[in-house]
Amino acid sequence: MFRLIFLAFFAFLPGCTQIIDTYHSSDYIEINDYDTRLKMSYLSRGIQSSYDQDALAIKLQGSELTQNWINNKRTSLLPVLAQASTDIAVQQIGSSLGSTIGTSMMGAGFVLNSFMNGSFDYVGQAFLPEKFQGEKLETAEQAHAALIRFTEQKVRLLAERIGWSFECSYGCDGPTQSYVLRRGNGKPLSDRYLYTTENVMVFAHIKPLLKVAPDDVINALLDFPVKWKTAPGFTYIIEFYSDPIFNKGNQLVLKFQDDLNSLVGLSRGHYFKKNRAGHDFLRAFHSTPYTFFADKFSRALYYDGVEYSFTVLPAAIRVNKFVSEEIYLTN
Questions:
Q1: Domain ranges of the chain
Q2: Residue 300, pLDDT above cutoff 70
Q3: In this predicted model, which residue has the larger pLDDT, 256 or 50?
Q4: Which of 36, 52, 110, 115 would disulfide-bridge 48, Cβ 3.0–4.6 Å?
Q5: Residue 308: band (very low, low, confident or very high) from pLDDT cuts 50, 70, 90
């Protein structure tokens, strides 16, 4: 306790390195680009209420971004959009009133089926193009294997970035994995952080991928043609934990937990994402257009190297700011 008070006192003295554990209001910058707010709100839609998701769907279908995509694809989706709008109004899919407006169901997921029930506290998803890292992904199994390899590469690159050792402790090459990053003789984490650690455990669970329809709206929102994606929801899970527990042989302690749907639960320390260092680890890992993570409690979305923030009050387009601070990790 004394150390925390001591650090907090000296953090703001002139000439001292500022000790940080959370972002300050001055670190958040308003997003002026409407399309960016729309895109990021769509990615993180699973943490919104069903009502706000419906409102977002209406804004999405009427956006210039979406309309330009429709025109460029030369796809006749207007009857579908009209039906979707009617369905939203009557709260059901395929209503008789909607059918009188447009009977084609091509791309109905454009507005409704890609949305969720708003019950998620966390949302994470992955997207892959047809050709990825030199390989043409022709089957869901190929795409799943490619995403598993990519995930390990991202963790390994993160370890190299901070100069720590990397080891796979469970599930190597499988859909459920755990890794350990150990400082050893490497650099300590930045002294700008209030809370640091000597070891970090990474837990990954990668669910199977689905083939993306050509008229899926995700292709209007991301900057590459998406061929494969994990299902909407928390289907690409990457979690960072500090101070993992090791046995006498210096191996990570693992525990199987039935209440996690047969996933591998780990005996672990602090949930790292609750502090600034953890935020930076998440930003560094998701410095890619292929994956994202959103947290309802932290009101944070990590995508393509940026941390976005949500409004406090519910809204259709909820993402409104981004963090301007750089990623520190080490000194």
A1: 2-48+118-323
A2: yes
A3: 50
A4: 52
A5: very high
Q: Which of 127, 116, 302 is nearest to 219 (CA)?
A: 127
- Residue 147 to residue 291: CA distance in whole angstroms: 10
CA distance 40 to 308: 8
- More confident of the two residues 111 and 199: 199
* Burial class of 126 by CB neighbour count within 10 A (0 to 12, 13 to 18, 19+): buried
Rounded Cα distance between 230 and 233, Å, is 8
Burial group, residue 326, by CB count within 10 angstroms (0-12, 13-18, 19+):
exposed
Residue closest to 39 by CA, chosen among 293, 238, 223? 223
* 3-state class (DSSP) for residue 136: strand
Task: Check: CB of residue 252 under 8 Å from CB of residue 201.
Answer: yes
Exposure string (b/e) for 2-31, b if CB count within 10 Å is 16 or more? eeeeeeeeeeeeeeeeebbbebeeebbeeb
Q: How, if at all, do strands 122-128 and 135-136 pair?
A: unpaired
Q: What single-letter amino acid sits at 211?
A: K
Q: How would residue 245 be classed by pLDDT, with cut points 50, 70 and 90? A: confident
Q: Which whole-number Å values give the CA distances from 107 to 60, 101, 113, 216, 283, in the listed order? A: 14, 15, 9, 6, 33
- From the centroid of its chain, how far is CA 80? 29
Q: What are phi and psi of 312, to 5 degrees?
A: -70, -45
pLDDT at position 162 over 90: yes
pTM of the predicted structure, to 2 decimals: 0.82
What number of CA atoms fall less than 13 Å from residue 84's CA on the CB side? 25
- Which tokens in the block code for residue 240? 């960072």
Q: Which of 278, 221, 228, 239 is nearest to 126 (CA)?
A: 228
Query: Residue 130: its pLDDT value, please?
Result: 97
Number of C-beta neighbours around residue 321 at 10 A: 18
Six-digit token pair at 185? 């003789």
